[in-house]
Amino acid sequence: MTTSDPKARGPESATSLLDEVRRELLAENLTDQTSTEEAPLRDLPSRVRFGEMVNELVDEILMSADAAPPELRRSVATKVDLIMTRRRQRSGLLERLLRSSRLEKRRTVSDVATSIGVDETVLAALEDGLQELRATDPQIVASWIFELEHLDAHVEAALWRSAQTTALPQAELAMAGEEDRPKLATSDTFVKGVIERLRELAQTKNA
Amino acid sequence: MDLDELLDAAREGESWAGLALVTQLMPTLLSYVKDIAGDLSTADQEDSIERAITRSIDSIERYDAQRASFPTWVRGYVRYAVADIRRAKGGDVALDEAHLPQWLEEVNSGEPSGDSSLPEGLTWPLLELPVTDQVIIALRDFEGLNYEQCARRIGGGVTEGACRVRHHRALGRLRAILEGDPTYQHLTGAIQP
Q: Do B157 and A26 touch (CB under 8 A)?
């Protein structure tokens, strides 16, 4: 079996591919068997791609299951349920999320605006969706997030959603004139800019 | 319902989807962690599973189906949790960031993955290897199994010796590919001759 492109192999199941792998390994000539254990490629980067069928096959090879102890299952299920609840509560746009966080912390718009060094009317307009998030200085957005939240998957997802809300949908982009194209690209740059500044703020705090 | 639909529902915060993922993941991860962390107590093994499942589900937005299967992605979190537990116990264990599926970090932050040996945008030429080579390298070098575990998992009478020899030869073929391509030549030192 030398085909390295899994797509060229057709709709072969992982099971039959496993049989082929077994056959090849059983046929391996062991007469010049090395006695030393090959050092693992510890320094291989995480940027690694195996063939699609290889990934499926590895999953199948590692598929064997052990019975989960009920206490462990209960404990993990409880934590995952909390994650799901939080995810539902925090779904939506960043502006809504930060407004909820501010109210939970019993802080006023004025108080938060002063802390992050921005005019109160600007922050109020952002919270109310009157000012487009993407049109705001990433530094201000980062400071706003940092004041009320920390960068986690939920906040990041909300940031992406908010940034993309005003971006052109792909279908429209395909039909748009050149003057419209920067809008979508700006969205990526904007989000990356906010995340970068958030990380700088976190580093400054930890220093 | 297929896995993609399940993941979408979990992203939306559907409790049933979260629990379904726990049900699907936990038994196979328990079996896996016994292989890669046999030195840890049962409590620590279970702790690593709990950490891995909650962390991966909490970070589900970062999962990219184009880069790996979902179980592959979650096993990365298991390895990271195991290394973290060993380190907390005072073991001389580097918390190998390569254990974490960081590729989406790159997408989101624009930061390099921390691997300096490979230019950005370049992946190791593993696809040029035969499937069996890829499988044995994946199991040994990335999933963290030893040769005995590789043989047992592959089954069908395959021996530890066959896995050892095949891994040795697979790395030799990978080394030859690296040496023959100017893009990768500087990486040949990463594989012991």
A: yes
CA atoms within 13 A on the CB side of B145: 26
Enter the pTM of the model: 0.66
Long-range Cβ contact pairs of B117-121 (< 8 A, separation 24 or more): B117/A43, B117/A45, B117/B186, B117/B187, B117/B190, B118/A45, B118/A47, B118/B187, B119/B183
Angle at A144 between CA A116 and CA A130, to 5 degrees: 110
Phi, psi of A7 (to 5 degrees): -65, -25
Say if residues B85 and B48 touch (Cβ distance below 8 Å).
yes
Give how far B110 is from chain A: nearest CA, Å.
7
Gap between the Cα atoms of B164 and A127, Å rounded = 60
| Chain centroid to CA B167 | 17
Give which of B90, B71, B67 is closest to B3, Cα–Cα. B71
Q: Among residues A161, A124, A151, A118, which one has the least CA distance to residue A137? A: A118
- Taking the C-alpha atoms of residue A162 and residue A71, their distance in angstroms, rounded to an integer, is 40
If DSSP codes are grouped into helix, strand and coil, which group holds residue A67?
coil
Give ipTM to 2 decimals: 0.82
CB crowding A24-41: b at 16 or more within 10 Å, else e: bbeebeeeeeeeeebebb
- Report how far residue B10's alpha carbon sits from residue A66's, in angstroms, rounded to the nearest whole number: 24
How does B92-114 read in b/e, with b if 16+ C-beta sit within 10 Å? Answer: eeeeeebbbbbbebbebbeeebe
Q: Is A137 exposed, middle or buried (0-12, 13-18, 19+ CB in 10 A)?
A: middle
**Interchain proximity A45–B117, CB inside 8 Å:** yes
Question: Per residue in B143-160, pLDDT tens?
Answer: 889 999 999 999 999 999
Query: In this predicted model, which residue has the larger pLDDT, A108 or B188?
Result: A108
Contact A153 B15 (CB under 8 A): no
